[in-house]
């Protein structure tokens, strides 16, 4: 299998993404804890925040899977086209 088309992220980029996500999550948590209002309001914002994070991760994964699927379909179509062209050139 030809691995020349595989794109991977560098270790520093992955580290940056993880640190950024952690900082954002901690900042959001601190903001909710120290925001004025009762426990009901804080709980509501905490649940909404967790749902937003979950939905963002799900959306990101779904879009990535869709992109990978389209790349695979394109590779299959390209292989079929090359096979047909090779048959005609012989």
Question: Would you mind describing this structure in some detail?
Answer:
With 90 residues, the chain is an all-alpha fold. It has one domain. The chain has 2 helices and no strands. It has helices spanning 11-33, 39-89. Helix 1 (11-33) runs antiparallel to helix 2 (39-89). It is elongated, with a radius of gyration of 23 Å. The protein starts with 10 loop residues before the first helix and ends with a helix. The model has no long low-confidence stretch (mean pLDDT 87).
What is the SS-derived class? mainly alpha
Q: Characterize the biggest β-sheet.
A: none
From the alpha-carbon coordinates, what is the Rg to the nearest angstrom? 23 Å
Q: Quick one: overall form?
A: elongated
Task: Please give the alpha-carbon distance between the first and last residues.
Answer: 24 Å
What percent of residues adopt helix (DSSP H or I)?
A: over 70%
**Overall pLDDT metric:** 87
Poorly predicted residue ranges: none
- What's the count of strands? 0
Q: How large is the count of helical segments?
A: 2
SSE series:
HH
Beta-strand level of the residues, as a percent range?
under 5%
Transmembrane segments: 12-35, 41-59
Keywords: Membrane, Transmembrane, Transmembrane helix
Pfam families: YiaAB (PF05360)
Organism: Shewanella eurypsychrophilus
